[in-house]
């Protein structure tokens, strides 16, 4: 079996070149261009084996895809368009080249679909497989999306269902199972696994939203992505903007068939706290939210209180601030 | 003892804010500006405990300093000026806050001295302390320094002595000792330790060189930094540029007193292969090299052969391509 130790650093650099932007590898740093009139956007994420992925739940192609997708999702959350990524890898000497090649295939595939290219990186020996990605993007100054700019009276929207990634993980870890279920449920279960392994950064929603906003006009949009859970995103935006929110329980888009498989309480819990769905959570002027019908789902409104309430016909309860704990 | 697990991710973000660019932390990504007419330069490095540093040889302040210095050195090697860095950290739950605070102190101190600020990052649980830094810089298109642009007849220069970092490591690991040596040697030994723990990125040389070149004039400069060893840098430049080099052994600047302590052969070996001195190795037009007298040391010339030769009065030998092996 060919390992990274057999190949050595110079050999690895040669082997990964086909996955990288032509001409970008081989100097101490890479050179890129930010378009005139644009600002630079930068975000870094680190994925670590056993903490963020394992061979049991995530094949190397998916590790690469997810690592890039998580970073591109952060760019989307800022309203930016991708320029490129750097990839610093920590690898045990015994890591197989086949694993690494699939990792690069996954990263390159996600970049090909969503924009950007690998422009640099680093290899290091490590006890655990470690993937540290920095993504670079650009935006016009008026297009930046922050967490702290929500105001009372905005529509709170999400770009897709929540809880699917957590459900996919549960399936992969045999925490739940769908054996013997009908075909539709089995097909739905496959989409949960895919949501966990190869999430889609919602750059498409940003592009669509831009196309609806007249160039030069300043439309206040607040938001972030839901990588640490929907409840966390709602809480972060509310807290940063010093607004409250009423979120209507029945409007939360859940993955089809999930409630039937795990029960409505578990499905709701995963939707709120599961994390890693990589959708966008945005506060928009109601008029813009209406024009985005079919692309986003309105789940509530901002108000001048100081709490995020989950409301429905029967009861109202405050959303606690639970999230994926990193330590 | 207060650990990172006690503090949690949100608490850590609050605690490191004083070390970061004001206003840059708190969104999914940071926003920066590249000056008009400038290109963006980006480089990533990963430092891992037991591979690149250990408590025995590198206190946390120095781990932070070195991690930033290594990245700024890559920017200097491209001819760029720093804009900022992102810092992704992998930490065991038991990591003490005091360790982390000193790490940030070291990073901030190096940035304060040499330019740039911490603009973003990520925390993750990990088995080994892992520091992944991405540095961003900018340059005017004509100022970029590449490895592949050397031509025959240029002066090969270095910006300082080589071997000091390796000698400092040897002292810290008790591989060599200077007990009972005279005061001058003891003082020199302290500079070797400092060279290992807190190397200086040579952005000053780039700034000085720019001040000597008329704005708008295109002067061909090739080069890289010597982080993986002087021999490696010479070999990489020669190989990328398809030139040969004659390097004059007696002109190689060694750290004062090193030959006396470890013998001339060991000193030469460390100068060529020790690595991590983070000086610049440049190929310059001879006229420019002459104007940089006192700032750089001319160690040889490029030629149209295909080998890098170490020459002196007695003998000539080819420099083999040994370097710090990452796996």
Walk me through the structure:
The structure is a homodimer of 327-residue chains. With 327 residues, chain A is of the alpha+beta class. Chain A is 36% helix and 23% strand. Chain A contains ten helices and twelve strands. The first copy, chain A, has helices spanning 4-16, 60-78, 97-114, 164-172, 183-197, 203-212, 230-241, 258-262, 264-273, 286-291; strands at 30-32, 39-48, 81-91, 118-125, 130-139, 155-158, 222-225, 244-248, 280-284, 297-303, 308-311, 316-318. In chain A, the strands form two sheets. A seven-stranded mixed beta sheet of chain A has the order 7-9-6-10-8-11-12, with helices on both faces. In chain A, strand 11 (308-311) and strand 12 (316-318) form a beta hairpin. In chain A, helix 1 (4-16) packs parallel to helix 3 and helix 2 packs parallel to helix 3. The first copy, chain A, is globular and about 65 Å long. At the A-B interface, helix 1, strand 1, strand 2, helix 2 and strand 3 of A face helix 1, strand 1, strand 2, helix 2 and strand 3 of B.
Provide a short characterization of the protein structure.
The structure is a homodimer of 327-residue chains. By secondary structure, chain A is an alpha+beta fold.
């Amino acid at each position: 079996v060919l390992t990274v130790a057999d190949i050595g650093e110079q050999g690895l650099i040669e082997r990964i070149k086909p996955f990288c932007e032509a001409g970008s590898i081989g100097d101490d740093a890479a050179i890129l261009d930010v378009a005139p009139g644009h600002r630079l956007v930068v975000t870094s994420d680190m994925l670590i084996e056993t903490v963020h992925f394992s061979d049991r739940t995530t094949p190397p192609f998916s590790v690469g895809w997810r690592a890039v997708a998580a970073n591109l999702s952060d760019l989307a959350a800022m309203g930016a368009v991708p320029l490129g990524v750097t990839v610093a890898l920590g690898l045990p000497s015994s890591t197989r080249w086949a694993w690494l090649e699939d990792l690069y295939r996954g990263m390159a595939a996600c970049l090909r679909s969503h924009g950007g290219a690998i422009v640099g990186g680093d290899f290091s020996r490590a006890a655990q497989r470690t993937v540290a990605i920095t993504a670079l993007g650009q935006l016009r100054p008026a297009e930046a999306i922050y967490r702290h700019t929500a105001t009372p009276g905005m529509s709170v929207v999400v770009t897709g269902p929540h809880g699917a990634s957590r459900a996919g993980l549960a399936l992969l870890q045999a925490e739940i199972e769908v054996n013997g279920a009908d075909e539709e449920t089995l097909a739905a279960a496959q989409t949960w696994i895919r949501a966990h392994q190869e999430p889609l950064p919602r750059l498409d929603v940003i592009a669509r939203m831009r196309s609806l906003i007249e160039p030069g006009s300043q439309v206040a949009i607040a938001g972030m992505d839901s990588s640490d859970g929907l409840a966390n995103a709602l809480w972060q935006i509310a807290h940063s903007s010093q607004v409250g929110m009423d979120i209507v329980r029945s409007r939360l888009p859940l993955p089809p068939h999930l409630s039937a498989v795990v029960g409505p309480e578990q499905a709701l819990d995963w939707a709120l706290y599961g994390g890693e769905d990589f959708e966008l959570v945005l506060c928009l002027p109601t008029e813009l939210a209406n024009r985005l019908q079919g692309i986003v789902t309105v789940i509530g409104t901002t108000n001048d209180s100081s709490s995020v309430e989950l409301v429905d016909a029967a009861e109202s309860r405050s959303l606690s601030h639970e999230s994926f704990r990193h330590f």
